């Protein structure tokens, strides 16, 4: 279970602002926590809720052991309400139900908290109904709105909240956290580069589809070195069979992009920057096949292939054209 000290490692400004408010008993009636995926906004919202509701909070940190803390963790605390989008949006009925719930006295105490996840997905009617709720906040009631897109929030709602902006995690921070959690250093490096979302990086370590995608990149590069005439057949029979849609193929192109960047890193003797560390011998073998100039040219071709996908060029044509460029 996270505490404010752990949050401060990746979100020092947000952690300092919130803990000072808690210590000074100056918790705002409404917060808008905005940050990209992977910036721990949900964990911060839950920790803030605990710090408000827990009766044994010390130095801004909840005790993490009392019944209140445990029930907040499980999502079953009667004084905490967490709203998620119902389908594609947060609907008026959800906000109406929330307001009704908050007309009742607190079951355990008078401290009540509600969290609205993906608040930018509220319908216009839901947002306007929430606005009225924010304009007349109940005593000891705290609202926490979470969003990755603050531009989707009504200005009138923004003006009634304390905005807490979370900074994006760097790939080095994600890599460090993953290694501390027990992931291998090689995988932590690759996943931290592939995504800046800590949660998704964790999921990739258990993702069989991604593991196979990684193997296919290694196999393709081996074929391009050893037997180029088989490369197009491999693309048709193996590559396109695995990367079935445009999003998956785009991920495969991202992996190829990182592979050719690694070739350039080795050409300039910058091994510390390698992403495919677990496959360094295979990348090394590519040095004899691709000059630095070749690799730079192919990087440009991969970027062009990604653009063609966005322009709805047929995936087979995109990969065949790119493969011909890589046959050098």
From TrEMBL:
Q: At the top level of its lineage, which domain of life is listed?
A: Bacteria
A single GO molecular function term of this UniProt record: DNA-directed DNA polymerase activity
GO BP: any one term: DNA-templated DNA replication
UniProt xrefs under PANTHER family: DNA POLYMERASE III SUBUNIT DELTA, REPLICATION FACTOR C / DNA POLYMERASE III GAMMA-TAU SUBUNIT
Q: Which NCBIfam families match?
A: holB, PRK08058.1
What is the protein's given name? DNA polymerase III, delta prime subunit
Q: Which organism is it from?
A: Pelagirhabdus alkalitolerans
């Amino acid at each position: 279970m996270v505490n404010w000290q752990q949050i401060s490692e990746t979100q020092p400004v947000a952690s300092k602002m919130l803990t000072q408010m808690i210590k000074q008993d100056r918790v705002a009636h409404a917060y808008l926590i905005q940050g990209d995926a992977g910036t721990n906004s949900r964990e911060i919202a839950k920790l803030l809720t605990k710090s408000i509701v827990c009766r044994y909070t010390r130095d801004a940190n909840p005790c993490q052991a009392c019944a209140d803390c445990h029930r907040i963790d499980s999502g079953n605390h009667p004084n905490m309400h967490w709203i998620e989008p119902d389908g594609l949006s947060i609907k008026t009925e959800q906000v109406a139900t929330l307001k009704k719930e908050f007309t009742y006295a607190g079951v355990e105490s008078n401290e009540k908290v509600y969290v609205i996840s993906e608040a930018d997905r509220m319908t216009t009617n839901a947002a306007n109904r929430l606005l009225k709720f924010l304009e007349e906040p109940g005593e000891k009631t705290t609202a926490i709105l979470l969003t990755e897109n603050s531009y989707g929030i009504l200005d009138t709602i923004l003006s009634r909240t304390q905005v807490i902006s979370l900074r994006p995690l760097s790939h080095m921070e994600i890599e460090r956290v993953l290694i501390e959690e027990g992931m291998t250093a090689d995988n932590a490096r690759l996943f931290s580069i592939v995504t800046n979302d800590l949660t998704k990086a964790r999921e990739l370590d258990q993702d069989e589809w991604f593991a196979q995608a990684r193997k296919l990149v290694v196999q393709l590069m081996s074929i391009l070195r050893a037997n180029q005439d088989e490369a197009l057949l491999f693309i048709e029979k193996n590559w396109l069979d695995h990367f079935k849609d445009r999003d998956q193929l785009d991920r495969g192109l991202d992996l190829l992009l990182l592979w050719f960047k690694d070739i350039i890193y080795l050409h300039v003797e910058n091994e510390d920057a390698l992403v495919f560390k677990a496959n360094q011998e295979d990348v090394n073998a590519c040095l004899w096949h691709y000059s630095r100039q070749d690799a730079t040219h192919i990087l440009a071709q991969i970027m062009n292939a990604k653009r063609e996908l966005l322009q709805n060029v047929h995936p087979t044509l995109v990969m065949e054209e790119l493969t011909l460029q890589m046959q050098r």
